[in-house]
Amino acid sequence: MRTQRQIVDYSLRKRAVLREVYSGRVGVYEACDASPYLKSAAKFHGEPTEIRCPVCRREHLTHVHYIYGDELKQSAGQARAKSELPVLAMTFREFQVYVVEVCRGCGWNHLVEQYLLGRDGLVPGAGEAAAASAGRAR
Ligand SMILES: [Zn+2]
């Protein structure tokens, strides 16, 4: 997405948790604790992936996108379909997106990444060019 910025990747942290699970230091029940809310968000707003669950290895993971930010008002904290994000990014100046992977089978879940979206991230040059051409049209 064009306005995507300040990306934080959580794959290292995820691998560390998975190592603990594989070694038995962390129980599967502890790691696979997706709440009913997260599971239903995955069902209704999730983005299916081709990635197999690293714990049960049966289901494909679903990515759930949560949005946070003052501008969002009552929408803050909601899960949104990935396809809605570009529209929201043009509507709001700045909001945070958290991507969580969920296995709808065993309940494994972990934060994948977070990033900022919103109009404030538009490339300044592109905006000025658009403004300039709009000026010429007048
Ligand atoms: Zn699983």
Describe this structure in words.
With 138 residues, this protein is an alpha+beta fold. The protein has one domain. 35% of the residues lie in helices and 29% in strands. The protein has 5 helices and 6 strands; from the N terminus they run βαααβββαββα. It has helices at residues 11-23, 28-31, 36-45, 85-91, 124-137; strands at 5-9, 47-52, 60-68, 79-80, 95-103, 109-117. Strands 1, 2, 3, 4, 5 and 6 form a 6-stranded antiparallel β-sheet that branches. The longest helix has 14 residues, at 124-137. It is elongated. The two termini are 31 Å apart. The mean pLDDT is 91. It binds zinc ion (ZN).
Write a brief caption for the model.
β2 (47-52) and β3 form a beta hairpin.
Topology (elements, then pairings):
Elements lengths: L4 E5 L1 H13 L4 H4 L4 H10 L1 E6 L7 E9 L10 E2 L4 H7 L3 E9 L5 E9 L6 H14 L1
Antiparallel strand pairs: 1-6, 2-3, 3-4, 3-5, 5-6
Bound molecules: zinc ion.
What labels describe this entry?
138 residues, alpha+beta, binds zinc ion
N- to C-terminal distance: 31 Å
Shape: elongated
Low confidence ranges: none
- Measured as a percent range, the helix fraction is 25-40%
The main β sheet shows up as:
6 strands, antiparallel
Bound molecules: zinc ion
What's the pLDDT, averaged over the residues? 91
**Count of helical stretches:** 5
Instruction: Quickly give the structural class.
Output: alpha+beta
Q: SSE order in H/E notation?
A: EHHHEEEHEEH
Q: Nearest-angstrom radius of gyration? A: 18 Å
* Relative strand content: 25-35%
Total count of strands:
6
The number of domains is: 1
